[in-house]
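Q: Predict the bound structure with magnesium ion.
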Amino acid sequence: MEDKTSAQLEEGRLLFARDVDFMRSAVSLETLPPPDLPEVCFAGRSNVGKSSLINALTNRKGLARASNTPGRTRELNYFNVDGRLFIVDLPGFGYARASKTDIARWQQLTKAYLRGRPGLRRIFLLIDSRHGIKAPDIEVMDMLDETAVIYQLVLTKTDKLKKGELSKVAEKTQSFIAKRPAAFPFIVHTSSEKKEGLDVLRAEIASLALPSNLDR
Ligand SMILES: Nc1nc2c(ncn2[C@@H]2O[C@H](COP(=O)(O)OP(=O)(O)OP(=O)(O)O)[C@@H](O)[C@H]2O)c(=O)[nH]1
Ligand SMILES: [Mg+2]
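A: Predicted complex:
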């Protein structure tokens, strides 16, 4: 994991200490908000912990709807962080308890979004640390490697693993992305449950946001 300076960590903490508001749910590319701010999104297989991580980062339990049932998030949910950045909670891929038509529609929307959204500064691709990188993740990375948007891997639910197990997964994941052209070279380890790795992720996100009012 990347070392952040104390100034970077502080910048991240300050950003997330400010207002974070749910903005809108979009079910089509036409209903996305105008791309007026830089944005980052949380992508990953169903149930990997995208919504929980947004709640943990913002310290707001019910902000993004998390659930035990895979396929909980079905729209692109926009959050406005202090007027400086959008965070987008994406529907998961790889599973959904819904009709085939619905699944196809969500996935088409998500893919179109990931490929062509103006203002999208980084895709955080979440990987369940218990499972590691799976075929559907590779499919998404293949697609992203063809685009100019950088994606960064985030290992989630690290509280479920013993230290030794986690270092093995981390090592494997790190060597996997070393060969990927659009992958950000550092992975982040997080536990929303134990609130670990959040400050590093906050700092990374803050580095992509507009400068704060004070600096503007
Ligand atoms: N132990 C543990 N469980 C977690 C963690 N993060 C999420 N979970 C659990 O994993 C399940 C799925 O979490 P969500 O945040 O809803 O996952 P998601 O990726 O948003 O799922 P979809 O919206 O279906 O794509 C929930 O039961 C969470 O409580 C974590 O850090 N540790
Ligand atoms: Mg979700």
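A: The mean pLDDT is 90.
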